[in-house]
């Protein structure tokens, strides 16, 4: 029988530093909730707002798959491998920290904020050679369908990571209903709603609500209003 864990938008950790306002679905930095450490291999889901011209200076990461998904504005990236660039809405960024990497992230613009999701996935291989990739996808390709943005396979649509995980983004009109079938037995699925209202099996979710589902092969999702959401399928045994 399917198991569920529901995280309402207002139950998330709230870290407001003025220039940075971050909502933490799982324990992160000064926010610690022993019941909200991770969902399987999904370790961090931060919903970040960064004021104009501000950002994170060079800092280290190790043995984590780090995914950035811009929602509004322009996010400037640079790292110790010599990569630099800007990502914006429609782009996806992946960084395999592996054996160790330094990077920085800044709001490129001084006159408007940048909003993005920062997601960490526990990898299935430790101390790999660090790597960085970014890709531009067409948001129209997620209209009323699941648009794959992350997978374990370098030849698949989107980007890949060192984990048996699949991410999809969706932008649905009201009334659209589809079934999501898990790719791998033993995986769970975490749905995070960006806008609107959806019904997942019998659970209604609104903007910034999250729901984890496991011990099932698939779920039914219905758009109660025009909605955008992110699906993250990850192994539960980590």
TrEMBL record:
One of its GO terms (molecular function) is metal ion binding. Binds 1 Fe cation per subunit. This is Pirin domain protein. Its cofactor is Fe cation. It comes from Leadbetterella byssophila (strain DSM 17132 / JCM 16389 / KACC 11308 / NBRC 106382 / 4M15). InterPro entries: Pirin, Pirin_N_dom, Quercetinase_C, RmlC-like_jellyroll, RmlC_Cupin_sf. PANTHER family: QUERCETIN 2,3-DIOXYGENASE. Belongs to the pirin family. The keyword Metal-binding applies. Keywords: Iron, Metal-binding. It comes from the Bacteria. Fe cation binds at residues 59, 61, 103, 105. Residues 149-234 form the Quercetin 2,3-dioxygenase C-terminal cupin domain. The keyword Iron applies. Residues 14-121 form the Pirin N-terminal domain. The lineage of its organism: Bacteria, Pseudomonadati, Bacteroidota, Cytophagia, Cytophagales. CDD domains: cupin_Yhhw_N.
């Amino acid at each position: 029988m399917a198991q569920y864990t529901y995280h309402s938008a207002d139950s998330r950790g709230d870290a407001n530093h003025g220039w940075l306002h971050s909502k933490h679905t799982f324990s992160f930095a000064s926010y610690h909730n022993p019941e909200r450490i991770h969902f399987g291999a999904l370790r961090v889901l931060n919903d970040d707002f960064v004021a104009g011209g501000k950002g994170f200076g060079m800092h280290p990461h190790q043995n984590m798959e780090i995914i950035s998904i811009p929602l509004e504005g322009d996010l400037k990236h640079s790292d110790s491998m010599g990569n630099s660039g800007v990502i914006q809405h429609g782009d996806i960024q992946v960084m395999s920290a592996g054996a160790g990497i330094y990077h920085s992230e800044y709001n490129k613009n001084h006159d408007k904020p940048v909003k993005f999701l920062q997601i960490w996935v526990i990898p299935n291989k430790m101390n790999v050679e660090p790597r960085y990739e970014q890709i531009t996808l067409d948001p129209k390709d997620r209209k009323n369908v699941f648009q794959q943005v992350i997978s374990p396979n370098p030849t698949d649509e989107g980007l890949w990571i060192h984990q048996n995980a699949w991410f999809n983004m969706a932008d649905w009109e009201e009334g659209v209903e589809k079934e999501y079938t898990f790719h791998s037995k033993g995986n769970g699925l975490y749905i995070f709603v960006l806008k609107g209202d959806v019904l997942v099996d019998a659970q209604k979710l609104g903007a910034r609500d999250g729901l984890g589902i496991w011990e099932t092969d698939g779920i039914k999702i219905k758009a109660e209003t025009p909605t955008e959401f992110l699906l993250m399928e990850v192994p539960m045994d980590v």
